[in-house]
Amino acid sequence: MLATHKHKLKIRRTDSVDDLNEVINLIRVLFVCLGNICRSPMAEAVFRDYVNKEGLGDKFFIDSAGLGGWHIGEGPHHGTRKILKKYNISGEGLIARKIEADDLDKFDYIIAMDNDNLSGIQRLRKEHPKAYVAKLMDFVPDADENNVPDPYYTGNFEQVYHLVTMGCRALLEKIKAEHGL
């Protein structure tokens, strides 16, 4: 099931047409924060958990990335790992990477954690990017917060988890409605 593992969106010459069609037909979602060790991997894991619990894992490709490259190749921050474990959500396969301009064409949805992340993504934008770009909390109309604060600085992983779960649930409902799932 593709939604249970982190994959690169690269097609090799040896891939069959069926493999290519499988990747093309997936709904591709990318979560983005500053360093890809706290918020965006948490959102990736939570969203994947929701998707899989609804039996939709074969319809999604879910990933996360950071605007900066400081943590490339690292796993999530210990606070993120601890909160995912507390709520029995798998963090398997979460490895930090940096967002690339090509991601704007490889993904259908690119979801930023805050205004600064959104601005950074918009600086990468091409003339007509394929991806719909928004902040996670944009999907929660009555939320007290419009940004997901960075727990790397605040230390409040519980608050971030609460916001991420609200945002991911609302995002999944939007995507299901748009795609008739």
Automatic annotation (TrEMBL):
Species: Caldibacillus thermoamylovorans
Catalytic activity from the UniProt record: O-phospho-L-tyrosyl-[protein] + H2O = L-tyrosyl-[protein] + phosphate
Enzyme class: hydrolase
Family: Belongs to the low molecular weight phosphotyrosine protein phosphatase family.
Active-site residues per Swiss-Prot or TrEMBL entry: C33 (nucleophile), R39, D150 (proton donor)
Cross-referenced Pfam families: LMWPc
Name this protein carries in UniProt: protein-tyrosine-phosphatase
Keyword Kinase among record annotations: no
